[in-house]
């Protein structure tokens, strides 16, 4: 009697306590995806990379402008020194003060178009980083779909396990009554108790898997582990009809236009081509222009006519100087550094071209596999339905025979176990088919929803 009471307590806890979260808000697959894209830290990390590329582009554009710098200096000297401003050698134990200021600017007139090509290269790099952000988002979307459907699967397996333990409990109750009147043996009763224990173990395993998959989903959504919600279940009939006429050519053509990895590979090829132009720029002469203004002051400076010490503002005006110049540098031989740089850039372009071909080939292979997986999952789901229905009929037949004493407890246990396993398999295959369909949506850029 004590053992029976403990079983009922466990069953009460499972049916009423564990299912409390059903009362909380429901989170759809689309909402889970949107929350993840809004809050996930991986996306923010990729966006930081994009922002750095924005600054690199801004810097390369700024390199076209002249630079401008200003400097001032003030020097104190005691004793022997040569005062450049007054042009005299100073002796004695006196202090000499000198000061100066200068303003300078320079600009590159021509550098083999390297700066212009660097701007173009940085624009392409910005596009590369933008596709990297989209690539991270796409990967997260697929992870959300995986964990969402895994949670639904485990949740339905848990519900099935609860129903199975109810069935086993009822069978144990009937066998206990039959045992009391001598219609069942102790072995029959022990077998029924073993079935209950087995089903309760399935409940605990299903519950743990369900909680773990929910936790993974919450972590993708950057939610607290204590957050509770229920999940939307898809319509299997609608999904089966949606993907009934899926073809490889249609999916592959759409995937080429929507997948960030393909777009990114194309940008990398453009970037490699522009790097060749940048490297070739070192073959050309470079022309630059510079200009400057400066003035000086010295405490030892005197007027050459009166011999009196010149005042500060007079020295600033009298000692001013302007300078300007233009420089031309023609590369003749730099130990083949430019030649090697150009050759490396060309090899980099060939690598980028090959990477683009590989990306297309991998996508083609992945799409073909995804369609095969969808068709296989569809067939397996139908087969699992048949297996469950036939095992259920077999169980019901064995149970009728068992109740009238024409079948033993081992046959009953085997039939029920086969039915339970078939039900679990049918649930798994059902959501495997849903997942394979969502993978197709992922590759062709359809909204991820039920």
TrEMBL record:
| The keyword Coiled coil is annotated on this UniProt entry | yes
Gene3D superfamilies xref list: Outer membrane efflux proteins (OEP)
Q: Listed GO cellular component terms?
A: cell outer membrane; efflux pump complex
Q: Where in the cell is it found?
A: Cell outer membrane
Q: What is its main location?
A: membrane
Q: Which residues form a coiled coil?
A: 349-380
Q: Name one GO molecular function term.
A: porin activity
Write out the entry's keywords from A to Z.
Cell outer membrane, Coiled coil, Membrane, Transmembrane, Transmembrane beta strand, Transport
- Membrane-spanning segments: none
- Look up keyword Zinc and say if it applies: no
Per the record, the similarity remark reads: Belongs to the outer membrane factor (OMF) (TC 1.B.17) family.
- List the PANTHER family hit by this protein, alphabetically: OUTER MEMBRANE PROTEIN TOLC
Q: What is this protein called?
A: TolC family protein
